[in-house]
Design brief:
This protein is an alpha+beta fold and 137 residues long. It is built from 7 helices and 4 strands; from the N terminus they run βααβααβααβα. The protein has a single domain, classed as Nucleoside diphosphate kinase-like domain (Alpha-Beta Plaits). The two termini are 19 Å apart.
């Protein structure tokens, strides 16, 4: 398994609920490396670019409204198999189906407010890191 980089977000719900430390602790305890971390409020244009794959879905407007509504924490996380590994730490998209012990399984009940984002493949990781940390990774 290769060393990979992935984009992780603590979404506005996670920041509001004071879960940034909890998420970072789990990433570090697992053995992944934090390469960059920034608290910011996302511009609408960047949010639409980030979620472009969902542009035709009925929940797209709400998704963009929500992700731009308050500050989020963006991170570049690296390590052996970090892309799939972080998806496992995060748990399933629907928190009611996420395994207890995962971030979503432990802290969320609603699909629209599921605490974290993590890239789902090598191409999306590259693309998304370019949106949040242009020219850095
Ligand atoms: P992921 O975050 O696990 O990769 P995606 O399918 O890429 O899941 O969806 C992006 C985000 O959009 C999810 O994290 C979730 O917050 C939201 N979302 C996905 N499906 C729905 C839905 O059916 N209703 C409302 N929000 C949704
Ligand atoms: Mg996704």
């Amino acid at each position: 398994m290769a060393i990979e980089r992935t984009l992780i977000l603590v979404k506005p719900d996670g920041v509001k609920r004071g879960l940034v430390g909890e998420v970072v602790a789990r990433i570090e305890r697992k053995g992944f490396t934090l390469e960059a971390m920034e608290l910011r409020t996302l511009e609408r244009e960047k949010a639409e670019e980030h979620y472009a794959e969902h542009a035709d879905r009925p929940f797209f407007g709400e998704l963009v409204d929500f992700i731009t509504s308050a500050p989020l924490v963006a991170m570049c996380v690296s390590g052996e198999g970090a892309i799939a590994g972080m998806r496992t730490l995060m748990g399933a998209t629907n928190p009611l189906e996420a395994t207890p012990g995962s971030i979503r399984g432990d802290f969320a009940t609603q699909i629209g407010e599921n605490i974290v984002h993590g890239s789902d493949g090598t191409e999306s990781a590259q693309r998304e890191l370019g949106i949040f940390f242009p020219g850095r990774f």
